[in-house]
């Protein structure tokens, strides 16, 4: 619990990945990819219940073996390419009711740490916002991105104020979602049907922990990170949190 509020953590992992077949249980660093997220969540100081939503037998078996509760099988209609993650979260909240805060953890963000999960929850509560999501610094600033018209001419996606300096170090901050942690007050989430509203706050994460596994190249980057010992908080010998 955090500030007297119960926290449900939801790991979503469907079968049938096309970019990297079987990626959710792909062995990385001696354990399935999904185990990296399970370990980070189990070490949290605030998570009261950790569950999986999946339609895949192999993923469900791996999650259960790794210490994640698997209280139901996701319906096929919520496991195809057209299903939204919002509908999957709402389905889980209806199946496992009674919690004040929900935190969505995708197994494709394996380098997110326990400290990142707890930090997102702390910022959610301290800010009294309806939701808090993890972000990373944008690789390309919006003021430096363009679209092309039918005539091929460039137009900025975001127009800077007149006289704005164009040196990178002088640009205002710009952030991108990194997909690692989404947290929300349950009642507000159900009303808004979104983790992103005008009142959402961000929890900054560094680029090295913001890797999102979507392609074989991403898998190679993860393997390199593991081999170089750039491990998340819960895998460091000095990790302070106790797995639960």
Tell me what the structure shows.
This protein folds into two domains: 7-138 and 175-229, Spore Coat Polysaccharide Biosynthesis Protein SpsA, Chain A, CATH 3.90.550; 139-173, no CATH class. 26% of the residues lie in helices and 20% in strands. The chain has six helices and ten strands. A hairpin with a 5-residue loop joins β7 (146-148) and β8 (154-156). It starts with 6 loop residues before the first strand and ends in a 17-residue tail after the last helix.
Compact description:
It contains six helices and ten strands; from the N terminus they run E-E-E-H-E-H-H-E-H-E-E-E-E-H-E-H. With 244 residues, the protein is an alpha/beta fold.
Q: Total number of helical segments?
A: 6
Q: CATH superfamily of the largest domain, called what?
A: Spore Coat Polysaccharide Biosynthesis Protein SpsA, Chain A
User: What's the β-strand tally?
Assistant: 10
* Computed CA radius of gyration, to the nearest angstrom: 19 Å
Overall 3D shape: globular
Low-confidence stretches: 233-244
Task: Tell me the count of domains.
Answer: 2
